[in-house]
Amino acid sequence: MRAFSFERATSPAEAAAAVARTPGAKFIAGGTNLLDLMKLEIETPTHLVDVNDLGLDKITPTDDGGLRIGALVRNTDLAADNRVRRDYGVLSRALLAGASGQLRNKATTAGNLLQRTRCPYFYDPAMPCNKRKPGSGCAAIGGFNRNLAIMGVSDKCIATHPSDMAVAMRALDATVETVKPDGKTRAIPIADFHRLPGDTPQIETNLQPGECITAVTLPRPIGGKHVYHKVRDRASYAFALISVAAVVRDDGTGRLAFGGLAHKPWRVEAAEAKIGDGAKAVTDIALAGAKTTPQNAFKLPLVERTLGGILTEARA
Amino acid sequence: MKFDKPAGTNPIDRKMVIGKATDRIDGPLKTTGTAPYAYERHDVVANQAYGYIVGSTIAKGQIASIDTADAKASPGVVGVVTWENAGKLGTSHWHTARLLAGPKVEHYDQAVAIVVADSFEEARAAAKLIRVQYKRADGQFDLAAQKASATKAGDGADSAVGDFASAFASAPIHLDQQYTTPDQSHAMMEPHASIAAWDGDKLTLWTSNQMINWAVDAMSDLLLIPKENVHVMSPFLGGGFGSKLWVRADAMLAAVGARVTGRPVRVTLTRPMVFNNTTHRPATIQRIRIGSDKDGKITAIGHESWSGDLPGGGPEGATNQTKKLYAGANRMTALRLAVLDLPEGNAMRAPGEAPGLMALEMAMDEFAEKLGMDPVEVRIVNDTQVDPENPNRPFSQRNLVGCLRKGAEAFGWNKRNPKPASVRDGRWLVGMGMASAYRGAPVMNSAARVDIDRNGVVTVATDMTDIGTGSYTIIGQTAAEMMGVPLDKVVVKLGDSSFPVSSGSGGQWGANSSTAGVYAACMALREKVAAKLGLDPKSAVFENGTVSAGGKSAPLTDAAGLSAEDRIEFGDLSRKYVQATFGGHFVEVAVDAYTGEMRIRRMLAACAAGRILNPKSARSQVIGAMTMGAGAALMEELVVDKRFGYFVNHDLAEYHVPVHADIPHQEVIFLEEEDPTSSPMKAKGVGELGICGVGAAIANAIYNATGVRVREYPITLDKFVEQMPRVA
Questions:
Q1: Spatial separation of the C-alpha atoms in residues B176 and B196, rounded to whole Å
Q2: How near does any CA of chain B get to the CA of A308, in Å?
Q3: Same fold, B2-35+444-575 and B353-441+579-723
Q4: SS3 label, residue B264
């Protein structure tokens, strides 16, 4: 870990300005991901701006019947919130499928969106990685990539986004609210928040330098059965091989987003029209253009089978 | 005390303390966080500095140059040690690869430097500033690709009885299959850690090590100092599973760092470093051939195993159990060893039998299916009471059949549907599987010293280690039984090279051997006590703090101040008899019919392993090993990057071991057994038996549930999900 300076911000706009004016500065909230990466010197911030005291830890109703989730709401509190459990069950279930109780107690809503890939080559500074060191190459392509991406990959990077929460947020059409260093705010649809790797896998979101997440809002509840099925190599405390966030209504309509497949939560709205035709009809569209390796090709049938189970049980 | 004749009746047979389920006497120290583990010993020596090890980023080649200038100038740094300034170092026959590289690099993450600084954080930060230039050489990292180049793995690598080839060829039922097991990491809770301090040319090492005397030996050889100048202490370990049988880089580089900088140095391996810097259980490719008559009696059995290691290393003895487990007149085993430039392969819990039985017991399941016989019955039909390779040599005791029958009954094996993929419970496919368990019961000479103080407290000192197994408690129970005092009147001191040399902990020999050493010392002390009290030593009874003989008695405290030391020395009983432990594993699994996710629902082990000294800690050993076997069956695999030559998944987020949610209710049944040939304790060992066979029992249950046979461990869902029947 490199030495760094530290300050506590007192407002979101001030936090944004503080990060923008200091080269190499980063926000720190729960620290559940950033601190590990700093110890390995995969992240080497020169300055940390602590956003824990900004009062962004409330969950409040929005005027249009949705919920505004403060950026600093802890994963544990969000999963346990009665309104979330009642109206956005897929989100609560996704949160509880992630990490461990201890990590969820510290991890924040905004931090969860910003967590970095778990690609093992990203985690080993001795190995090439275009995300960690742009231009150094990708050791995962041609290496151990069993749990890496099959959708939206590039020849620079096949990393996945590790979040469960974000997959549910994507299915729910959440919106990310931010404040920029100049004090202006904006709302970014979650579909546009994360990026595909392309030629710049080191740039993972569409946030501008210093831009600070203040909240994530959920639109009014859409009803339906809420399911989050995370398939992994052990029963708990593992990243998804694949996951499916599903909201299925009695009339056969619904929402589907997938985790463990791409550099961002994967959702193809057009595929949702096929829910009534079964899992294969959905995945034929949602997973069209998949680019698999011999190690991770199993994800295609696994998504279809997992979705098949969800749709069968939702109809039952 | 020589032990060369089967034990007769002795004071242990009273079983007033021995054989009783007993809480760990070191439990309160552990639950209150006051048990002193190596890395936390802030108090033992002043002015400790912190060492941080830098590992090689190539698997094979040479160090061209090391630039340490920036590291040395970094805040808090006391010194940097590399091969260039480490001074003359020796080699130890306990290690295949050197613990400090230079100029030659033998494997990835082999230590190339240690940075010593005032704090851990300063040492770690400075370590990142060391720039090493390498000359990379091509290496061999792929066992399957090197299989053809493998050679006979030393003397004793092969065995043959009868005419296997023709018996197999002519057998009406045969099975010929290949199985693979991956490289595995011990993944114990406590990483390797040491503190080293010099006083002149005398070294004190506080470390985490299973074999104190081997540690003394190795440190002496590595540092080129006499053994008597080395003092090693390791009173508590947070697990080892074989990875701490030998000192590792933490110990040697703490000592070298301390010698170069003049400060006591404390070093832990970071978790990501444990996987490539230390040892691992090597991967195997195994071919098993079984031939029989239609009645299921084996006429030919062959087991070949290929593994790899660095030049000069050894094989994984995956054929061990096949020499002993089942009858059959015509048999062969062979071990083949390839050169691989991966980190050093070595012992991990039940080396040989653990991966060997994963293959053999899956083969037996397939063989039973070919015969149309029940898997339990086919094993019983092939039981033997003599060494199948040497029928003149009987087993000292062998109750495999009892384990299988009793286990099957307790588990409800008769409810198993032999037709695969035919039991549904909602979205789950349910299956049952079983396997035999076999593990040798080796013994090692072991010494102890026992004394009595004026309060009647009996103190045992031996360099035996407690690696989480419960050694403190069974040694205390042994002394309590022998000296006729309650357990709370016994003090047990372990893990210090100033104490008499014990068996140490490994190969599941520790419990039987070390308590037998305590037995020997107690017998010597009893004679001294009786003599001092004027009692006949032959007939003296030690009970309730009193010694009685011939109608006279005296309190044990009258013998205060007496002390005795002795060593159990094992004779040739282990050559006259095959001494081994046996078990039967029974498992029920559920497999998600859609996704292939697997959940173990029940596990049961029935074990015959000699006298069980402490049923509570013995059960803990068996269920811990069953848990480890579940990891081996379902998830554990060090993934080799065959381009760079290293284990990619080198942390506990990526190298999966079971979590609580993976492990269901576990039941353990111990069959009544006492083995008079094993030692005066009549015990054997259970620390490794529990992992033997359980992986195959799980694999066989998955097959029974799904109808898909996966012969490449671990059985992850990607290997079979596409072959599972489609669900409506």
A1: 53
A2: 7
A3: yes
A4: coil
pLDDT in tens, A261-281: 999 999 999 999 999 999 999
Task: Residue A243: name the closest of A139, A169, A158 by CA.
Answer: A169
DSSP class of residue B337 equals: E
Window 112-151 of A: residues touching B by CB (8 A cutoff) are 118, 120-121, 123-124, 126-127, 139, 142-144, 146
> By three-state DSSP, how is residue B366 classified?
helix
Task: Residue B542: name the closest of B523, B561, B560 by CA.
Answer: B523
B353-441+579-723 CATH: 3.30.365.10
Pairing between strand B541-543 and B490-493? Answer: unpaired
Compute the distance between CA of residue B634 and CA of residue B631 in angstroms, rounded to an integer: 5
Q: Which two tokens stand for residue B673?
A: 């057994």
Q: pLDDT category, B725, cuts 50, 70, 90?
A: confident
Residue by residue, DSSP assigns B368-436 as HHHHT--HHHHHHHT--SEETTEEEEEBS---HHHHHHHHHHHHTGGG--SSTT--EETTEEEEEEEEE
DSSP state of A106: H
Do strands B298-309 and B284-292 pair parallel, antiparallel, or not at all (unpaired)? Answer: antiparallel
Strand partners, B582: B438, B608
pLDDT (tens digit per residue) in A236-257 = 999 999 999 999 999 989 999 9
Look up the pTM and report it.
Answer: 0.98
Distance CA(B579)–CA(B442), nearest Å, equals 7
Q: What is the ipTM of this complex?
A: 0.97
CATH topology for B2-35+444-575?
Answer: Aldehyde Oxidoreductase; domain 4 (3.30.365)
Residue A199 gets which letter from DSSP? T
CB contact under 8 A, B644 and A305: no
